[in-house]
């Protein structure tokens, strides 16, 4: 993690925020652009979940992480508070590693 | 003066905003702790973790960038993926703009806090005055909790064996929590499933972390209008 990455991210994130609030303001983006942007988090967060769960570099694998994330899915579905979701998922993965 | 003075309308208004804002602050605290810890794990330092939370200040994108870097992805993959994920903040900016009218410096300052939680809280209010208050109170709560948690996590992270305690699934668990309130429509659910499948399918063939960017292309189905396509803003979870 270099300082360049952090600076580019900071500037980029601020540019996006201010583009909406200051740049576009009380006008609006075209509906199609809004629709695409609205769907990005669903696509990207899902991709991040499977990446962090089932991949190691270029390889696909199933290991203790899958148990932890399965626990997280059930916990979120059961409306467990988010801090507890994270604790339960980490604990499940840690326990599976300890006993295997 | 009566002893038991009923709360005035104004006090009531503030309480109705500060309570939920503090609730959101506590919720992001756990995310911030994980972020701090994993930032160190990905080769960061306490100052770098703090710079991310103070200046980037959009949780899901910070997580995304660190997750890609931790997996051995390139700086370009990390930055592009994180900024694609941050694009929704531009739409949030448009959504809160009518509540944050004022001078250019005021709006430029307000922009830094245009994220899921502030937008959700602002749009949930019934009057312009309450919307403006809700924006700033939520911004203050999230900013303080997020940065405090990042600091604690980063300091602790220097002394933690993250794999032993399963902390390497903290991000995935957090992403599950962030995703849940965003996939309320059938279309969003289909896009979510497709994004996950695309990421797994391309992982062996593209640079580490680039699968996230390829998966984002699934969102282009939004170009095809449908009756169910609605507002980008969810009042739900932190991201």
Number of H- or I-type helical stretches of chain A: 4
The share of residues in helices of chain A is: over 70%
| String of helices and strands of chain A | HHEEHH
Q: Output mean pLDDT of chain B.
A: 86
Helix content of chain B: 55-70%
Gap between N and C termini of chain A: 32 Å
Terminal residue distance of chain B: 47 Å
Average pLDDT of chain A = 91
Number of domains of chain A: 1
Instruction: Provide the succession of SSEs of chain B.
Output: HHHHHHHHHHH
- Biggest sheet overview of chain A: 2 strands, antiparallel
Keywords:
heterodimer; A: 100 residues; mainly alpha; two-stranded antiparallel ribbon; B: 239 residues; 2 domains; 11 helices; globular; disordered C terminus
Characterise this structure.
The complex is a heterodimer of chains A (100) and B (239). By secondary structure, chain A is mainly alpha-helical. Chain A has one domain (28-99). Chain A has helices spanning 3-24, 31-54, 64-77, 82-99; strands at residues 55-56, 59-60. In chain A, strands 1-2 form a two-stranded antiparallel sheet. In chain A, β1 and β2 form a beta hairpin. In chain A, α3 (64-77) runs antiparallel to α4. The longest helix of chain A is centred in the middle third of the chain and has 24 residues, at 31-54. The mean pLDDT of chain A is 91. Chain B has 239 residues and is an all-alpha fold. Chain B has two domains: 12-168, no CATH class; 183-229, no CATH class. In chain B, α2 packs antiparallel against α8 (128-157), α3 (59-70) packs antiparallel against α4 (75-86) and α10 (186-202) runs antiparallel to α11 (210-216). Classes of the chains: A mainly alpha (100), B mainly alpha (239).
